Amino acid sequence: MEPLAAEYTSSTQSDIRIFYSVVQVNLAHAIMLAEQKIIPKQDAAAILRTLVELHETGITGLELRPELEDIHMAVEEFVFKATGEEVGGKLHTAKSRNDQVATAIRLTLRKNLLDVEVAFLELVDAMIALAEKNTDTIMPGYTHLQVAEPTTFAHYLSAYCYAFLRDVGRLEQAYESVNSCPMGACAFAGTSFPINRARVAHLLGFRHVDENTMDAVGSRDFALQTMAALAIAMTNMSRLAEELSLWSSAEFDMIEIPDEFASPSSIMPQKKNPVVAEVARAKTGRVLGNLVGTLTVMKALPQAYNLDLQELTPLLWSSVDDARDSANVMARLVRALKPKREVMRERAGKSFAVATELADALVRKAGLAFRDAHAVVGRMVARAGKEGRAAGELNIDDLRAASKEIIGKDVGMTLEELKEALDLDKCVTARALPGGPAPKTVREQLKSLKRKAKNHSKLVQVRRRAITKVEVNLLKEAKRRGQ
Ligand code: ARG
């Protein structure tokens, strides 16, 4: 090829990521070829010895020249050099780079997915630990970014934990889609050699064999599914990142981001910028972009293999890395986070966050219809707000005046009942419905979250152990046959 064209179309650099997987696919394929007597035992032995040697040397054993196009050709060249073309040339019998690359991507992605899951589980663990210390920490909850109702910091953290565990669940589902073996599809239409597809899949620890060979080489929806799951996970995390930077500002002042996770300004001596949260927010943009980029590569792409597919793979790795790194660093930040409990409480108290509870109390104690109670409290709050008074300063006269205006009569509520309705702690504790912010209920949520997280961790462990076992066995079998 013309040198510039060769460089332009080569994937050697981004292929470094799948090096070990490519070697593994070759090992499994060579073992199967020998077992099926498609190539002589002693040729397979020489090939396997060379591949094991390459596995031990690592990527530095390869010469990744762009004119080789990709890592698949570089591995083959390595084998030729050691065994001669007569023997090494048999390795590519009944396989193509098309099924090989799809298989290698899946092998690498399988492990990478587990790393991302672990990072998100670590984040959940950090959030739960922080929540456990803050089940009594009153804070204002927001809707429309306006103070809405009082809640607790733990209730807020718990909300994110549920989202992140659903994200882990989506990644587990993506893992299932990834865990299927394309090998044997060759270019797309398979081969007339008597290969054993199930055997290769088994040697590589895949749960399934792709059932249609055209689909096996031409599809990347396992990557799309992964990237979509990562995009959702990052979108969830970006909301937390946004709030952490917002709340650490002087305007909100509800949390302190520790120095280790902030950076100063080069000119403004007073500054402490929440850069970790900002970068996490921005990484989300990249992960979303990668998803759209990948969807766009796949859109209207003819079956089966086209080199377009090669351009999609680096976007997949970029999303995986960004998500894993973001979750890992955010977990550390959350562990070091300091909520400003007094400020949180003060903000919840200042902004009539208890108004809904007061309206509810009018319904319960004074027998008002909720709509009337809503209007009465609305009038009370509007007036007190104009006069610069906070919720704690509302009194029976306010109630009397508002109810006379709105419903034309006085309402029967004692000062004690009024004060109770305005009490932040009581207001939160009273919301002990399932899922609510009452300390007791949130403690139950945290227990449930821990149980769920533990189950996800167990699945990760089971999958990791299975992969390690398969990798060890594959090398053992290759060494045995290479002797
Ligand atoms: N480098 C390619 C990729 O990453 C491997 C398959 C190339 N196949 C081909 N027919 N040129 O997707």
What does this structure look like?
With 483 residues, the chain is mainly alpha-helical. The protein folds into three domains: 3-93, Fumarase C, Chain B, domain 1 (Orthogonal Bundle); 104-137 and 152-195 and 206-344 and 444-470, Fumarase C, Chain A, domain 2 (Up-down Bundle), CATH 1.20.200.10; 355-422, Fumarase/aspartase (C-terminal domain) (Ribonucleotide Reductase Protein R1, domain 1), CATH 1.10.40. It has 20 helices and six strands. It has helices at residues 3-9, 12-15, 19-35, 41-57, 71-83, 85-88, 97-132, 153-178, 197-203, 213-218, 221-247, 275-298, 308-336, 341-350, 355-366, 370-386, 396-407, 415-422, 424-429, 439-482; strands at 138-143, 146-152, 180-181, 208-209, 255-256, 338-339. A two-stranded antiparallel ribbon has the order 1-2. Strands 3-4 form a two-stranded parallel ribbon. Strand 1 (138-143) and strand 2 (146-152) form a beta hairpin. The longest helix has 44 residues, at 439-482. Residues 11, 70, 72, 97-98, 101, 305, 307, 309-310, 313 line the site of arginine (ARG).
Number of H- or I-type helical stretches: 20
SS-based structural class? mainly alpha
* Mean of residue pLDDT values: 96
What is the number of strand segments? 6
Terminal-residue CA separation: 39 Å
Helix content: 55-70%
Give the oligomeric state. Answer: single chain
